[in-house]
Amino acid sequence: QVHLQESGPGLVKPSETLSLTCTVSGGSISSYYWSWIRQPAGKGLEWIGRMYFSGNTNYNPSLESRVTLSVDTSKNQFSLKMISVTAADTAVYYCVRIPRYSGTYSYFDQWGQGALVTVSS
Amino acid sequence: EIVMTQSPATLSVSPGERATLSCRASQSVSSNLAWYQQKPGQAPRLLIYGTSTRATGIPARFSGSGSGTEFTLTISSLQSEDFAVYYCQQYNNWPPMYTFGQGTKLEIK
What we know:
The complex is a heterodimer. Chain A is an all-beta fold. Chain A contains no helices and 11 strands. In chain A, strands 2, 4, 5, 6, 9, 10 and 11 form a 7-stranded mixed β-sheet that branches. In chain A, strands 1-3-8-7 form a 4-stranded antiparallel β-sheet, with no helix packed on it. In chain A, a hairpin with a 4-residue loop joins strand 5 and strand 6 (57-59). The model of chain A has no long low-confidence stretch (mean pLDDT 95). Chain B is 0% helix and 52% strand. Chain B has strands spanning 4-7, 10-13, 19-25, 33-38, 45-49, 53-54, 62-67, 70-75, 85-92, 97-100, 104-108. In chain B, strand 9 and strand 10 (97-100) form a beta hairpin. The interface between A and B is medium-sized, with 22 and 26 residues.
C-alpha cells in the first residue's frame, strides 16, 4: 500500500514562499500523475496542480502564476512551491496520487494525511 | 470552469435508512465523476470513481450513478461510520482541471 507524507514549514510569513514536499513510500513515483489539493479550515477542496513523474505539469489557472511543482524520482518525492502567499493561502495541503483509468487521469486514489500551513506574520 | 453543485448542503438521516446525495455539473463531464468521504481531522477517502465504480475496500452499500451533468451517491443502509462530509469531483480533459462540489454533510437524525 502506497503511503504519502507531506513535510515542510507549518508557518510562513505573508509575501514569502510556501514550500512543501511529499514523500512517496511503498511504491514508485513512476507512471503516475501526482497532485496537490488544499482545504482551508471548514471549507471545501481546491485542486492546485498536477505533475507527471516525467515532469509534465498542469496548474489550476487561478493559482498558476504563483505555483511551481517539481519531482525528484531518485528520492521518490514531489514538491510544491507557492510564492507571494497571503492569509488566504492558509489551509491544509494534501499530496495525492492520480491513477490512470479508462485512458484518463480523472480522480485521486491515495491521499497524504495533510499538512497545515498558516500564513501569518 | 465547470462548477459542481451539491445538494442538499446538510442531510439528516437515521441509521439504517437510505441516503441520496446529489451533484450537478454546470456542463457535461461525461463519466469523469468521483465521490469522496471526509471525516473530521482526516483526509478525504475515495469512494467512487468513473461515476459508478467503487474504490478498493468500499462497501457495497455505497453506489454511484448518473451521467452528463446529474450524478447521485446512494448509501443504502446508513451505518454509524458513514456520517461524514461527502464531496463530488469532476475532471475535465482539456485544459486539465479538477473541481469539487462544496460538500454535503450527512448527519445523524
